[in-house]
Amino acid sequence: MPNLYYQQILHLGIPMKKVCIITKDLTAEPKIGFALHVHNLAKELGKKYRVDVISFGGGITESKIIKIANNVSIIEMPDIFSLFIGAITYKIFKKPTLDYFLSVSADRKKSFKKIALKKIEDADVVIFEGCWHAGLLPYIPEEKLVIYNAHNLEYALKRQVYTDFVTKRFFLEKIYRIEREMVINADYIFALSPTDASEIVTFYKIDPAKILVNFTFAVDVPDKNYTRKHADPKALVFMGSSYFANIEGAKFINEVLAADMPEYEFHIIGEAGNHIKKPKKNVRLHGFVGKEDKQKILERCGIAIAPIFHGSGICGKIIEYMAYSLPVVCTPLAFRGLGVPEDLLILAEMDDFAEKIRNCDAITLEALSKKGREFFLRYRTPEMLIQDWEKVIERGHK
Fold it and tell me: Using an 8 Å Cβ cutoff, are 208 and 167 in contact?
């Protein structure tokens, strides 16, 4: 059944505003945090607006049209070019290059442009998830409201890993130009953290008034039957997609933590674990799992960990850990920009990660579990975060 707002709009004969979201990756059935953020944002916007999502490239391998809510439809379009070239260059340079080639391909793919521009023409609001489809900006009429949902500062992120001559020379400068074009031309920018918002202003010299901090929708929430009764303090969990920082974290768990802590059991959920060739005896690789199976694993685990050593944006998995009442041990970089009080988790460096875990007593774990869940319910539910989006959409151009 449509919600009350939708029923009132229909009754009054007022046309609903239309939102077009341009994104990448498997948005209909999200396997990574980026896609989950877009998926949940689209569903929340769909409670008040008609939403069309065009998801082009990334992990998509076949065309699909999927309806995920009353007012939300997703068109998924594969891009073999970026997948193929991105995979080859990753093997050569051991650096993430897929998104750059996605941007190149989006500029030349006629079928994608035809569908995207038709949906943009019908929309009142255009939202870009990430900067990679900036090539569409010149085709958008001035009366359309353009919002850039910046999942991180791409240039700052890539600068951390593009350290060799070739990637610095041929990729980094172009990524700067792509991101700059998106930042300059958007009417509003949503940043996932105060740190990102500040860095965007510093890097691109834009008016800070057009940036809003809104954190992340990339969070599953537990079902009513979820319980912590059987949680084992010596069972640890890490969630990570096939993203270079997550892969690095998963390998650190297997090669360092699991070796140093044989009395603990480590559960790795997500495709980052697929990159571990020889898991230790106390490492369990679950791969990508659905929500029901993920919940069963999380119920058994006493501590969630996030050994993240590179990245920009925010580490959204920590908010999801809190939603599931899991105590968290993480690196300062994983904590960066979350807007979470430091006393709600335990910070650990690479060289003392194992020690910090071992020092977690039952009283501390119980307190972190309770306070983390309370923080999520009070500040980070989708119902709370969507209010800023609705205000901007209703406000329109300045």
Answer: no
Give the helix/strand (H/E) hosting 304.
strand 301-306
Does residue 276 contact residue 251 with C-beta atoms inside 8 Å?
yes
Distant-in-sequence contacts of 75-81, Cβ < 8 A, 24+ apart: 75/115, 75/119, 76/26, 76/27, 76/28, 77/111, 77/112, 77/115, 79/105, 79/106, 79/109, 79/112, 81/105, 81/109
CA atoms of 283 and 303, how far apart (whole Å): 15
Buried-state track 242-258, b at ≥16 Cβ within 10 A, e below 16: bbbbbbbbbbbbbeebb
Q: How far, in Å, CA of 304 to CA of 184, rounded?
A: 38
pLDDT for position 398: 64
The two tokens of residue 159 are 């600068």
Which secondary structure element, helix H or strand E, spans residue 118, and what is its range? helix 110-122
As a whole number of angstroms, the distance between CA 96 and CA 87 comes to: 9
Q: Of 49, 54, 63, 41, nearest to 118 (Cα)?
A: 54
Residues in CB range of 296: below 8 A, 6 or more apart: none
Q: Which residue in this structure is represented by tokens 């020092």?
A: 359
Nearest to 187 by CA among 398, 23, 41, 394: 398
Question: What are the chain's domains?
Answer: 4-218+382-395 (3.40.50.2000), 232-379 (3.40.50.2000)
| CB contact at 8 A, 167 and 93 | yes
pLDDT < 50 regions, the chain: 1-2, 6-13
* Cβ atoms of 306 and 253 closer than 8 Å: no
Integer Rg of the chain from CA:
21
Is pTM beyond 0.70 here? yes
Q: Are 149 and 128 a contacting pair, CB within 8 Å?
A: yes
CB of 87 within 8 A of CB of 116? Answer: no
Amino acid found at 47:
K
d(CA 119, CA 182): 19
Inter-residue contact 77 to 122 (CB < 8 Å) = no
Between vectors from CA 172 to CA 318 and to CA 38, what angle results, nearest 5°? 35
Using CA atoms, how far apart are residues 341 and 326, in angstroms rounded to an integer?
16
Measured CA to CA, the distance from residue 318 to residue 120 in angstroms comes to: 34
Reference 269, options 291, 245, 244, 302; nearest CA is 291
Per-residue pLDDT tens digits for 229-258: 999 999 999 999 888 899 999 999 999 999
CA 369/CA 329 separation, integer angstroms: 12
Count of positions (residues) in the chain: 398
